Amino acid sequence: PKMFMCHGGRDPLVDFAWGKRTFENLKSLGVEAEFHKFDNLFHEINKSELQKLRDWISATVPADS
After folding, report:
1. Is the pLDDT of residue 36 over 80?
2. Where is the Phospholipase/carboxylesterase/thioesterase domain (predicted)?
3. For residue 26, pLDDT beyond 70
Protein backbone atom coordinates (compact mmCIF):
# COMPACT_ATOMS: atom_id res chain seq x y z
CA PRO A 1 0.00 0.00 0.00
CA LYS A 2 1.00 3.61 -0.50
CA MET A 3 1.77 5.76 2.53
CA PHE A 4 1.84 9.51 3.13
CA MET A 5 4.01 10.71 6.01
CA CYS A 6 4.57 14.20 7.38
CA HIS A 7 6.73 15.39 10.23
CA GLY A 8 7.21 18.72 11.92
CA GLY A 9 10.83 19.81 12.03
CA ARG A 10 10.30 21.24 15.51
CA ASP A 11 8.21 18.38 16.93
CA PRO A 12 9.09 18.06 20.66
CA LEU A 13 7.16 14.78 21.12
CA VAL A 14 8.42 12.61 18.26
CA ASP A 15 12.04 13.21 17.31
CA PHE A 16 12.41 14.08 13.63
CA ALA A 17 15.15 11.47 13.19
CA TRP A 18 12.73 8.76 14.39
CA GLY A 19 10.14 9.79 11.84
CA LYS A 20 12.70 9.88 9.04
CA ARG A 21 14.16 6.52 10.11
CA THR A 22 10.68 4.98 10.14
CA PHE A 23 10.16 6.24 6.59
CA GLU A 24 13.52 4.80 5.47
CA ASN A 25 12.72 1.44 7.09
CA LEU A 26 9.34 1.28 5.38
CA LYS A 27 10.91 2.13 2.02
CA SER A 28 13.49 -0.64 2.51
CA LEU A 29 10.61 -3.06 3.05
CA GLY A 30 9.07 -2.07 -0.27
CA VAL A 31 6.42 0.34 0.99
CA GLU A 32 5.66 3.04 -1.55
CA ALA A 33 5.84 6.10 0.68
CA GLU A 34 6.21 9.87 0.57
CA PHE A 35 7.79 11.86 3.39
CA HIS A 36 7.25 15.57 3.87
CA LYS A 37 9.06 17.70 6.43
CA PHE A 38 7.49 20.93 7.65
CA ASP A 39 10.39 22.88 9.14
CA ASN A 40 8.51 25.18 11.50
CA LEU A 41 5.80 22.75 12.57
CA PHE A 42 5.62 21.24 16.04
CA HIS A 43 3.47 18.15 16.85
CA GLU A 44 0.49 19.57 14.97
CA ILE A 45 -1.05 19.95 11.54
CA ASN A 46 -1.45 23.05 9.41
CA LYS A 47 -3.19 24.11 6.19
CA SER A 48 -0.14 23.45 4.02
CA GLU A 49 0.15 19.90 5.31
CA LEU A 50 -3.59 19.30 4.85
CA GLN A 51 -3.37 20.56 1.26
CA LYS A 52 -0.48 18.17 0.50
CA LEU A 53 -2.50 15.32 2.01
CA ARG A 54 -5.59 16.29 0.03
CA ASP A 55 -3.58 16.40 -3.21
CA TRP A 56 -2.02 13.01 -2.40
CA ILE A 57 -5.42 11.45 -1.70
CA SER A 58 -6.83 12.88 -4.93
CA ALA A 59 -3.90 11.45 -6.90
CA THR A 60 -3.89 8.09 -5.10
CA VAL A 61 -7.51 7.10 -4.51
CA PRO A 62 -9.63 6.36 -7.59
CA ALA A 63 -12.36 8.96 -8.15
CA ASP A 64 -15.11 6.33 -8.09
CA SER A 65 -14.17 5.06 -4.61
Report:
1. yes
2. 3-60
3. yes
